[in-house]
Structures are given as C-alpha cells and as structure tokens.
Amino acid sequence: MTETGADVVSLGEIGGGRATDDPVRVVLAVPKEAPWQTVAELPEGVRVSTEMPEVTRRFLSDHGVKAKVFTSHGATEAKVPDIVDAIVDLTETGSSLRRAGLRVLATILTSRTELLANRSPTTTPRSGPRCRMLRCCSAARSPRGDRSCSS
Hints:
Elements: E1 8-15, E2 24-31, E3 46-50, H1 53-62, E4 67-71, E5 86-91, H2 95-99, E6 102-111, E7 113-118, H3 129-141
Parallel strand pairs: 3-4, 3-5
Antiparallel strand pairs: 1-7, 2-5, 2-6
C-alpha cells in the first residue's frame, strides 16, 4: 500500500511476520564495516537496491540523500557490496541481514499483514463468512498460539 499508493481499505490485520507475530520492518541496511552511522552520512550517489523503490526514494529524499535506487527482484542482500552500497529490505528478526554481513542503519517503517479490499462500497465486504474464515485461519496460524476466532 505504501509503495504503490493504492486506494484501498483495510479489513483488519491478519498477523505479523512469518517467524513471530511481531510487525515486520522495512530497513535500510549497509555492510557491517561501512563507515556510515546515520542516514545523513550516506554519500551522494550511494547505490541502493530494493524491492520498494518509491518508499526508498521518498525516505532518502526526506533525509537529504541523493541516491541511485535500483529495483531488485529477489536476493537483495546478495547484491552488497559488489553491485550496490546499501539495501532497503523487509526484515522480521534481522538474522538474514546479519548472515549477509549487513547491519541496520535505519528503520523506514513497520508493518503488519492486513487484509485489503477495493474502497468501493459495493465491493468491500467488511464482514461475512469469507472475512471471518480468513481471520480464523490467521488466528489458528498465530505463533502466539492464539486460537480465538472473533470477528
């Protein structure tokens, strides 16, 4: 939603990440040995790879960073440092980033999984059997063991 600016309505949260029920984070990560400690320290022309180019451009621009943003289509963390200087990626625990030799420089946003629908009132079922079924399935899969099935 944030990336595309889609005009949709949330029918409710259906969980957090895969490993935990905590929100996932969209982070800017750099090699652990990189000299930068803040976003403002990134040099002009820094190369950033991401699957969320619009979110990344807005964030960097808001922080006064003139960057070259490249759209990634998977394995974003593998592109550092040979192809790019930094990445913007989703992380839940940070373990994949650490294994790739990266560290989080900044958290851009946090997110939970939500069920979305077209904003048109004729196509937005806010309740009913399908929405209840999705909420029940989500509750049953919760890492917290939450088995409640409220609507």
